[in-house]
Amino acid sequence: MNFVKFLLFVFPACLLFSCAPSGRAYDPSRKYSRQQLQEDYSILREILESKHPSLYWYTSKDSMDHYFDSFFREIGDSMTEQQFGWKVLAPLTDKIHCGHTSFGMSRAYNNWAANKRFPSFPLFMKCWSDTMVVTNNLNRRDSILKRGTIIRSINGMNSAGIRNTLFGSMTEDGNANNVNYIRMSSNFPYYHRNIIGLSKKYAITYWDSAGKEQTTTIPLFEPVRDSASRPRPVQATKKDKRETNKKQLLDLRSLAIDTANNTAIITLNTFSTGRLRKFYRQTFRYIRKAGITNVVLDIRSNGGGRINLSTLLTKYVSRKNFKVADTAFAVCRSLGPYTRYIKNGFINNLGLFFLTRKNSDKLFHFGHWERKTYKPKRQNHYSGNLYVLINGSTFSASTIFCNAVKGQPGITLVGEEAGGGWHGNNGILIPDIILPNTHLRVRLPLFRLVQYNHVAKDGRGVVPDMYIGTDYNALLKNIDKKMMVVMQWIRDDNRARTASVDRK
Question: I need a labelling partner for 249 at 20 to 30 A (CA). Which of 121, 340, 344, 437 fits?
Fold first, then answer.
C-alpha cells in the first residue's frame, strides 16, 4: 500500500522529535503522590472511554463505570510504579476482556530490570483446569517438590483460588482464558510475585508418590548476588553473527521433513517477522516438488502479528475463497486531544485518517478488510491433509487464520481452544498509551475486527476439531502429546492407504 510506504518514510523523521531519556538513574522504590497517580488514572480512563473500540463489548457500561470508580479508590496516598501497575492497572484492564488491552511497566523500569533476578516463589508449574504440577524448583536442594509433584495449595489458597486470583489481573479475549493458563505455566513465579506478593516462607500442600496429601514449608527463593567481576564479552565474528541470525530465524519459523511418513512439519511462531513471504514461497514449492501429502502446521506459540502475512499463509492452503472480516472499524478518526500521551500518536492519526471512512453507523470503517475477497494461490498451492496445532497462545492474526480454514475439507484443527477470540478481536493498530507521571504503558487497540462468517459472541476462542488436552504422563516424560497423536494419525492413514492399494 502507498500509505505504508509513506509511513516508512515519516516514522524515522518522527523519531527525531521523540523525547530522549533523562539519564537519571532509575529508582524502583520511588513513590508517586496520590495526585500524580490520580492524574495518570484519569487520563487513562478518558482515553479508553473515547478511543477504545470495544470497551463495553464484554462488560456493560454500568459495570465498567463501577470498575473505573472502584479502582480509582484503590489508589493509596502514594504508590511505586510496580504497585500502581499491578494493584490498579492490571485488574482494571482485565475487566475489559480484550487481550490486546494490557498494561506494561515503563521503559525505564524494563531497562533497570533487564537481566536481574528477583526474589520469588520458587516453583515453576504447569497449570490447567484446577491442576498445578511442578515443572522446575529454583531451590535445588529441595528433595520433596520435584518435577511432577501435584500442588494442592499455597499458603492456604487452593489451586482454584490461585487461578482465579491470578486471572483477575491477566487479560484475555472475552472469556478465552486458555491463554492465561499458558502464561501461568511459562512463568508462575513472576505472576505469583506481582499479583499475590512475596512471603518469607510458603506452606505447601501436595500429593506424594502414593497419592496421599502431605504438607511442607519452603523458603522464598532469593538469588545469590554475584560479587565477582564480570568477564569482558568476546567480540563476535561475522560468522558468529551469521549463525546467530540463522538461529533467530529458526526460532521464528522452521520446516522439518519426516520422509518416512511423507510429512512436512511447519512451525510458525509469529506473523510479524522472519522473512515469512520468502519462507512460505520456498516451503510450499518444496512440498509440491517433493509430493508431500501431509502437513502439520504448528502455531501453538504464534501470538499473531501482521494480518497480511496471516492472510498470505491462508492463500497457500485454503480450498475456497475467503475474507478476513465482516466488519473492521474504529470509533474515532483522530487520537486528539490525547495524541501526546500515545506513542507514535502522529503516525497513528495518519493511519486512522487515511485508512478509514465514516459510514452511516457513524463508525470509521477500514473497508479494505471488509470488502477484499482472497482467492487460493494457484502456484505452489497445498491441497493435501493439513493438521493445525493450536492452544491458548494461538492469538490475534493466528486466530484469523484458524477461523478462515476451520471446517474446510482436509484441514483439521488439533489441540486446545485458542486464546484469540473466535467471534472477533481488537487490533490492527495497537499503540501504547504512556501515562505522563509514572510512564506506565497501556496498549490501545484502535480497531474492532469481527471475523468473516463469525460465530456468536460467546467469549470463546477458536475451538479445535479434535481436542487433545494436557496429559500428566506425557508431561512427566517431556513428550509432546499433541504432535505424537497427530503423527500416529498420519501413520495409520498411510498404512490404511497402502493396504487399500495392495488389495486392488
Answer: 344
